[in-house]
C-alpha cells in the first residue's frame, strides 16, 4: 500500500449507496472509479494521480470481492474523505504513523486543508476569519464594540456571554447576514451557517432541503441528496423520505440544519447553539463531529452558553454581560 | 437551474397545503356565483377573485420562505434565482387556475371573444403573482400584508372606473379587458389593458427584485 493508498471508508457501508450488491461487474465498478477520479480532479488532484488512486481503490475493492460503492460509499464522498485524510496528515503528521505516511510524498497539486474546489492551495493553519474592532449598534444602543477574533483552519472558537449580549448578532456578522456598525471583517469565501432556530421550510422534506440547498451551491439534485443522507448518518439520523420538516422533533430539525450548513463543504462553519433539543447521545455525536471538522482543517465558530462545552474548543471569546 | 429547483419545490410546498389551496382555488368561484346573473359583472368579479387568490397565495409563500432565503444566498444562490423561481411557480399555478376558470366562463357565459377572455384570465394571474410578492417584500408580516391586499382589492372593486384612483389600481387592466371581452368594445381597450398590465408587472416584479436584492445582499468580505 502506498502512503496515500485508499483505506476503507468508515462511513462507506452506511452510505446511501452502501446497499449495492457485491461485485456488480466491470460496469458499476468502472462507473464508480470514473466518478471517483472526476471528483479527485475537481478537488485539484493531478490527472495521473487521480487515475492511479482510482485504479488502486477499485483494485482494493476487487480484492475484497466487493463493489467499490459497498466498500467505500458514494464515489464523490469517498474522494472528499480521502483528500481530507491526506490533508489532516499534512496538518498534523504525528496523527499518523510516520512510517506508514510521508507527508512529503503528497503531490503539491492536492489542495491543503479546507481548500475549495477551485483548487487554490492554502497553507495549514491559515486564517479563516478575522474580526478587528467589530461593533454593532442598534440606534443609540451599543450591543457590543471592539470585538477582535481570529480563527484559523483547524481551530474551534466559542463565543460565550449572557443572554442579549449579541452572540447571535456577532455570528450573523461573521456570516455577512448582518452588517457591522464598526470594524472590519475578513473571512474565507465558503462559509456554512447554522442558525439557532428556523432556517428550514416546514412544508418540505429533508431530502427536498438537500436538493434545494444543493442547487444553491451548484450541486446536482441526486448528488446533493446522497451527500445530505450521508452527513445525516454521521449524526445518527436517517431522514425519512416523506416526513415534512414541520413534523420533525426540534432536535432532528437542528440535525437537518447542521447538515444543510455542511452540505457544500464550507471552510468555515458558524454554529449558533445548534444543539438545542439534542439528546445526550446526539449531543456527544455533535461534538465529535465538530472535532472531526477541526481535524479536517475546517475552522469552526460556535455560540454556546454551556460551560462544559468549552473543554473542546481552542479559544473562547466572552462577549460579557448584557450591554 | 437553481431557479427551476426553487420553482419546483415551491409548487410542491403549495400543493401540500391542501386546505389553504382548496380555499384559494374556490375563492374566485364565490365571486363568480354571486354575480352570475349579470354577465359582465360575473366575469369581472371572477377575475378580481382570482387576482386576490393568487396574490394572497404568493404573499404567504414568499413570507414563509423568509428564514430560508438568506441561507440559500449564503450557500451560493442568486437573489434572481430565489425570487424568480418562486414567482415562476406561482405564476404557473395562477395560469393553471386561470385556464380552469376560463373553461367555466366559456361553458357558462359563452362570451363573444373567448380568446380575449383567456387573455384576461391569464393576465390576472401574471400580474397578481408579482403584486403579492411586492406586498410581501414591503410588509414582511403576514397579517399586515393580507390587510394591504384586502385594501387594494376593495379599492379596486369600489373605485369609480373613470377616476384616477381606479386607473392607478394594479388590476385596472382587468376592467378594460372585461369591457373588451363582454361589451364588445374597440381594440383600444385591449391595448390599454395590455400596456397597463405590462407596466404593473414591471413595477411589481422589479420592485420585488430590488427590495429582495437589498434585503438579501451579502457584503463581500475580503479574504484574510
From TrEMBL, chain A:
Q: Where is the composition biased (Gly residues)?
A: 12-28
Which PROSITE patterns does the record match to this protein? Answer: ABC_TRANSPORTER_2
- Domain named ABC transporter: which ranges? 129-323
Write down the Pfam families for this protein, in alphabetical order. ABC_tran (PF00005)
Q: Where is this region: Disordered?
A: 1-32
User: Does the UniProt entry include the keyword Nucleotide-binding?
Assistant: yes
Check the UniProt entry and state the signal peptide residues, or none. none
What is this protein identified as?
A: ATP-binding cassette domain-containing protein
GO molecular function per UniProt: ATP binding
Would the keyword ATP-binding turn up in this protein's UniProt record? yes
Query: What UniProt keywords are attached to this protein's entry?
Result: ATP-binding, Nucleotide-binding
UniProtKB/TrEMBL annotation, chain B:
Span-the-membrane segments of this chain are: 19-34, 46-65, 77-103, 115-139, 189-212
Q: Give the superkingdom in one word.
A: Bacteria
Query: What UniProt keywords apply to this chain's record, in alphabetical order?
Result: Membrane, Transmembrane, Transmembrane helix
Query: What name is this protein filed under?
Result: ABC transporter permease
Species whose genome carries this gene = Paractinoplanes globisporus
Amino acid at each position: 500500500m502506498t502512503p496515500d493508498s485508499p483505506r476503507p471508508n468508515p462511513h462507506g457501508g452506511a452510505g446511501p449507496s452502501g446497499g449495492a450488491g457485491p461485485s456488480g461487474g466491470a460496469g458499476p465498478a468502472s462507473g464508480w472509479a470514473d466518478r471517483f477520479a472526476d471528483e479527485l480532479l475537481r478537488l485539484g488532484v493531478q490527472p495521473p494521480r487521480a487515475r492511479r488512486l482510482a485504479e488502486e481503490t477499485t483494485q482494493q475493492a476487487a480484492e475484497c470481492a466487493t463493489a467499490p460503492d459497498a466498500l467505500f460509499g458514494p464515489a464523490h464522498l469517498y474522494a472528499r474523505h480521502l483528500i481530507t485524510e491526506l490533508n489532516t496528515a499534512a496538518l498534523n503528521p504525528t496523527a499518523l504513523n510516520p512510517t506508514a505516511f510521508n507527508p512529503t510524498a503528497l503531490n503539491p497539486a492536492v489542495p491543503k486543508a479546507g481548500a475549495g474546489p477551485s483548487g487554490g492551495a492554502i497553507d495549514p493553519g491559515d486564517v479563516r476569519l478575522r474580526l478587528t474592532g467589530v461593533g454593532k449598534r442598534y440606534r443609540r444602543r451599543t450591543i457590543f464594540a471592539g470585538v477582535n477574533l481570529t480563527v484559523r483552519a483547524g481551530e474551534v472558537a466559542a463565543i460565550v456571554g449572557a443572554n442579549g449580549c449579541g452572540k447571535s448578532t456577532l455570528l450573523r456578522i461573521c456570516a455577512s447576514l448582518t452588517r457591522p456598525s464598526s470594524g472590519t471583517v475578513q473571512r474565507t469565501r465558503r462559509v456554512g451557517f447554522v442558525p439557532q432556530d428556523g432556517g428550514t421550510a416546514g412544508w418540505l422534506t429533508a431530502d427536498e432541503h438537500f436538493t434545494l440547498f444543493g442547487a444553491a451551491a451548484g450541486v446536482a439534485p441526486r448528488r446533493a441528496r446522497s451527500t445530505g443522507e450521508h452527513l445525516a448518518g454521521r449524526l445518527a439520523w436517517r431522514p425519512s423520505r416523506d416526513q415534512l420538516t414541520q413534523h420533525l422533533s426540534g432536535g432532528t430539525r437542528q440535525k437537518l440544519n447542521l447538515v444543510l450548513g455542511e452540505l457544500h463543504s464550507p471552510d468555515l462553519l458558524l454554529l449558533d447553539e445548534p444543539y438545542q433539543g439534542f439528546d445526550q447521545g446526539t449531543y456527544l455525536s455533535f461534538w465529535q463531529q465538530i472535532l472531526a471538522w477541526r481535524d479536517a482543517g475546517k475552522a469552526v465558530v460556535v455560540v454556546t452558553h454551556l460551560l462544559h462545552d468549552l473543554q473542546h474548543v481552542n479559544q473562547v471569546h466572552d462577549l460579557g454581560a448584557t450591554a | 437551474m437553481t431557479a427551476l429547483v426553487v420553482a419546483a419545490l415551491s409548487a410542491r410546498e403549495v400543493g401540500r397545503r391542501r386546505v389553504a389551496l382548496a380555499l384559494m382555488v374556490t375563492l374566485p368561484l364565490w365571486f363568480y356565483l354571486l354575480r352570475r346573473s349579470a354577465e359582465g359583472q360575473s366575469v369581472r368579479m371572477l377575475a378580481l377573485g382570482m387576482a386576490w387568490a393568487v396574490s394572497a397565495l404568493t404573499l404567504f409563500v414568499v413570507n414563509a420562505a423568509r428564514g430560508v432565503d438568506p441561507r440559500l444566498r449564503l450557500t451560493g444562490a442568486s437573489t434572481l434565482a430565489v425570487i424568480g423561481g418562486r414567482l415562476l411557480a406561482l405564476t404557473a399555478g395562477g395560469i393553471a387556475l386561470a385556464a380552469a376558470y376560463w373553461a367555466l366562463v366559456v361553458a357558462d357565459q359563452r362570451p363573444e371573444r373567448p380568446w380575449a377572455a383567456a387573455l384576461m384570465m391569464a393576465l390576472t394571474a401574471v400580474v397578481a403573482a408579482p403584486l403579492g410578492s411586492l406586498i410581501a417584500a414591503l410588509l414582511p408580516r403576514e397579517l399586515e400584508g393580507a390587510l394591504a391586499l384586502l385594501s387594494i382589492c376593495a379599492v379596486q372593486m369600489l373605485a369609480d372606473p373613470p377616476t384616477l384612483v381606479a386607473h392607478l389600481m394594479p388590476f385596472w387592466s382587468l376592467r378594460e379587458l372585461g369591457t373588451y371581452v363582454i361589451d364588445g368594445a374597440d381594440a383600444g381597450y385591449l391595448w390599454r389593458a395590455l400596456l397597463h398590465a405590462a407596466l404593473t408587472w414591471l413595477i411589481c416584479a422589479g420592485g420585488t427584485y430590488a427590495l429582495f436584492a437589498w434585503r438579501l445582499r451579502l457584503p463581500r468580505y475580503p479574504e484574510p
